[in-house]
From TrEMBL:
One of its GO terms (molecular function) is isomerase activity. It comes from Penaeus vannamei. The keyword Isomerase applies. Keywords: Isomerase. GO terms for cellular component: cytoplasm. The active site is at E46. The lineage of its organism: Eukaryota, Metazoa, Ecdysozoa, Arthropoda, Crustacea. InterPro entries: Phenazine_PhzF-like. Belongs to the PhzF family. This is Putative phenazine biosynthesis-like domain-containing protein. The keyword Repeat does not apply. It comes from the Eukaryota.
Length: 303
């Protein structure tokens, strides 16, 4: 069997930035073991699988607006992934020439929508606002926070959790700069030793944007005023650091929207690859994640 496969840089305006995802359009169901093997072979943070619903034949990819969508890391299937959803929508719109302006994905997190808006793609996702830890959780997870922050452990100000996603969110002091955030060196192996993944599957470290750190966008010459900067660590998913994480912004968006009093946020995930996400909190339990994507590789995989 031969399958089409694409690699896409999501939340990116140009190749070799943002977050990589593989996208595999399927014409029939694959068993879970094979999908996991392909994801392990690709060894990207996520590989996504698309299957048209209620449509078949050669025109399905251009006419169908409803798809099954699943996401696999190199080690397991996950319940929600933003950048691989953006990548899947991009492949449908750009590579497979889907004629619809809006697409619907059936996933483990329910129905997700993607809408084309010029060069941008808007994702309609569930909100995952974090809540405060219980006293028991604080005691249990304090060593994990220290392992994630390393020498910056004294900078932690609030620690909260998205129970739906099992994402621990650590807000560091507003005095921390972008360079302070980029300098954090988590001990991923210690994080795995300290916690079995039952309560926490990933750690978000975030800080309020600083106006004095506005950056020149080299290509466009415009200045960026980021509201929030973050990094994302998920060794329990086989991803020590994820470059740009859409699902993390379903947690960051509602938290920082309340704190900053803004419905629309410009967020920068400052991993070595880096990327930006526009987040709009809607007040109805949903958030819009907005970004761009670029196809870098297209080809076939032989099974």
């Amino acid at each position: 069997m031969q399958l089409q496969i694409f690699t896409v840089d999501a939340f990116a305006k140009k190749p070799f930035s943002g977050n990589q995802a593989a996208v595999v359009p399927l014409t029939q169901n694959l068993d879970d073991a094979t999908m996991q093997k392909i994801a392990s072979e690709m060894n990207l943070s996520e590989t996504s699988y698309l299957l048209p619903l209620n449509a078949d034949g050669p025109d399905a990819w251009t006419t169908c607006s409803q798809f099954s969508l699943r996401w696999f890391t190199p080690v397991s299937e996950i319940v929600l992934c933003g950048h691989a959803t953006l990548a899947a929508a991009h492949v449908l719109f750009q590579n497979l020439e889907n004629a619809n302006r809006k697409l619907e994905f059936q996933t483990l997190s329910g129905t997700l929508l993607a809408r084309k808006e010029g060069d941008l793609i808007l994702l309609d996702f569930p909100e995952n606002e974090p809540v405060s830890l219980t006293s028991e959780e604080e005691r249990e997870l304090s060593p994990l926070v220290e392992a994630a922050l390393g020498e910056a452990k004294g900078k932690a100000r609030t620690v909260s959790i998205s129970r739906a996603l099992k994402y621990l969110m650590v807000q560091v002091d507003d005095s921390c700069t972008r360079h302070d955030l980029e300098a954090i060196r988590p001990d991923a192996r210690a994080m795995e030793r300290l916690h079995d993944g039952s309560r926490v599957k990933a750690v978000i470290v975030c800080v309020k944007g600083r106006p004095e750190e506005e950056e020149e966008e080299a290509k466009e010459g415009e200045r960026k005023k980021y509201d929030v900067r973050s990094r994302f660590f998920a060794p329990w998913y086989g991803v020590d650091e994820d470059p740009v994480t859409g699902s993390a912004h379903t947690v960051l968006g509602p938290f920082w929207s309340r704190r900053l009093g803004k419905k629309e946020l410009l967020c920068h995930q400052c991993s070595p690859r880096g990327g930006e996400v526009i987040v709009k909190t809607r007040g109805d339990g949903r958030v819009d994640l907005i970004g761009q994507a670029v196809t870098v590789i297209s080809g076939h995989i032989n099974l």
